[in-house]
Amino acid sequence: MNLHLEIRQHLFDIEQTMQALAIWQSQPPAQTAFDSIEPFCIDTMQAEQWLQWILLPRMHALLDKHAPLPARFSITPYFEEALPDAAPLLIQLRRLDDLLNSNPSSGERTVQHD
């Protein structure tokens, strides 16, 4: 499977997992929450809000535009702290980290977890 297709599928898997865990929200946070300059909008959003309303749409937009994807990517450690009881989501996020840190030309995957 093409790397971009595989990443997109994982984004959909993350969405489904969030829905299954009942952390998917039907309404976005207040517009001012998006103005944060802090990593993960940690001062204005819950971790699951940032994932749903910031990361997932941005990743889909990159894929839609065939834009370069992040080469060094590691969000799982933050979510292990923020949502320690969301094991199914953590599994999906770790897979996304691994995919984005892979070397598609050789087919080898390099894992960058602390």
Give a quick rundown of the structure:
50% of the residues lie in helices and 4% in strands.
CATH architecture: Up-down Bundle
What is the CATH class?
A: Mainly Alpha
> How many structural domains in the coordinates?
1
In whole angstroms, the N-to-C terminal distance is: 28 Å
- Extended strand count: 2
Summary tags:
disordered C terminus, two-stranded antiparallel sheet, 4 helices, 114 residues, de novo design (two linked rop proteins), mainly alpha, single chain, 4% strand
Written account of the structure:
With 114 residues, the chain is mostly helical. Helices cover 50% and strands 4% of the residues. Helix 1 (3-20) packs antiparallel against helix 2 (47-64). It starts with a helix and ends in a 5-residue tail after the last strand. It has a single domain (1-19, 51-114), classed as Up-down Bundle (de novo design (two linked rop proteins)), CATH 1.20.1440. The protein has 4 helices and 2 strands. The chain is globular, with a radius of gyration of 14 Å. The model is unreliable at 105-114 (pLDDT under 50). It has helices at residues 3-20, 47-64, 76-82, 87-100, and strands at residues 102-103, 108-109. Strand 1 (102-103) and strand 2 form a beta hairpin.
